[in-house]
Task: structure prediction
Amino acid sequence: MLTAKRSPQTRRSYDTDIRQFIAFILGVSAKKVQLNDLDLRTVTMNDVLAFADYLETKEYETSTRARRIAAVKSLMRFANGVEWTKFNVAAQVPLPEPEDKLAERILSELEVMTMIALTPKGRDRSIIQLLYYTGARVSEIAPLTWRSVQPGREENGL
Result:
């Protein structure tokens, strides 16, 4: 099922993306689109490719364009899976290659040490230090509670 493994935010985004696709095909405003305004059996591969080309003319990030095309591909895969369409016209439509922006997100050691030094002592500083010194992800630290902390020497936690 389309929504079974998707977060609520992803489902909302896909809904918006599919409405934009339908609006593009019908030549109307996305705000006026109902999801049943378009018979998916009439959609062609050229329609999906034209939508992908249209998205390139907008100033969207590559990840946004990829998500919008992925939403259409998912819709068409679903339509084909329930045998609403004879074949998946979007199957061969490529997703835009994401730009590698990892280097932009990596801080130097000096930048991290400056951030730690400028953060007042206490919880926030401890969290930043824990993230940096352990290499843990925010999602791994976020669920920690005081029960997760063991008392150590000099009233420091472990």
